[in-house]
Amino acid sequence: MRILCEEKRIKSDGTSPIYLQYFSGAGHRVFLNTEIGIPPKFWDRHKQRIKDSLPTSFGDHLKLNDEIVRLYRLAEDLIKLAKSSGIEHPGEFVKERFSPNLRLDRLIQHDWKLRTQMEKTETSFFLQQMDEYIQAKSRKVKRGTLTVFQSMRLHFQAFEKYRGKPIQFEALDFQFYEDLFDFLTHHYTLPRKKGKAVGLRVNTIGKTIHQFRIFIRDRVKRRIIPAIDLSDYKVPTEETDAVYLNLDEIGQIYTLNLEERPDLAPARNLFVLGCLTGLRFSDFSNLKPEDLQQDMLYKKQEKSVHWVVIPLRKEAKAIFTEEFKNDIPRICNSEFNQKIKEIGKLAGIERPIKFSYRKANRMIEVKKPKYAWITSHTARRSFCTNEFLAGTPVYLIMKISGHKREKDFYRYIRVDPQEAALKVKELWMRRGDIEVFKKNTDCIEKGQAVNLRNQ
User: Fold this and answer.
1) How far, rounded to the nearest angstrom, does the alpha carbon of residue 150 sit from its chain's CA centroid?
2) Are 257 and 397 in the same domain?
């Protein structure tokens, strides 16, 4: 599709209309009127936009260009809708229905021809919009974020099937939210699980609702649907249980003899490197030789796209320069998680750990040896917690970890009650006030002696 200014159709006021030109196949062209007109000399044919030099008497060039972009996207969405609904002649369909004030939700509601065609397809308009949203985002977000979008889509597709009727944008009220929450909590069957597992955890539901709200805002901004009040769509959260490894446990892994299991050595070294740098798996598994400068790692974080500078301990530098010889092994996250659990078991990190989580109105407890709770993210969490316990100022740790808010940072700190008690006792000893009432007792004894003398 192209944007053009019809120079041959100059009106009495000296302006020419701007059209969207859609090639619908077999050389057939369709012109969609944007109802915007400007003098032809102020149209940039190569950039397909209005020039900055447009006199203000014809309008603000920035606002007009924004409106052209909006109409271009609206036309694209209308074309996709026609094709996905199986319309036989999409070009004619689009030409008949396109206008700057078009709203796709109203079109679907009142256009009997379109509704008839859509009923013949397996995918509802709601899911079609979600597919287009994910496709557009796929060129802008990381693979992990894309997986979150795709999971959201699966949840709503399952809910639509469970209800036995398509989801409609105009029906997204509070009752819909409650029904969705109930379905995801009690009835959603998890795919690709051994045996049958029903119901999602609180944070998984919260992630789905959070992404759904963003999706709706995107569709509203594009004027595909009218504004929808989602203020009652609360995002549920639950503090996650996760382990960290103290320096002694990291040392057990680092010094573990793997002569009989050399296949585990690369994963072991990567994990220790992560524990000593605080990098995410996506970052420490993609380090390059040029990231090391003067015993410091200079790394642009993949998730936040911010630079961090990380000082290297002796062991971390040895891993980077000697074990890997500047060549970081490539390993996927799932394989890495499986191997690091096996390494933790061989290192004897077997203390039983019990965690709990809420599913619906039930509290479920799971007890496993500590090594079974280790994941790639344990490395980053271990770095933050160990530095915090060592007394490193939080703002300095955040400079290395890349956290922007203390609220987010403190979610990483994992200190069990016994460790907290020992840490407080250590501080008392260091300050010399383990016997907090000793001075008061001395003062009392001196006061009594003074009173006796006065008598």
Assistant:
1) 12
2) yes
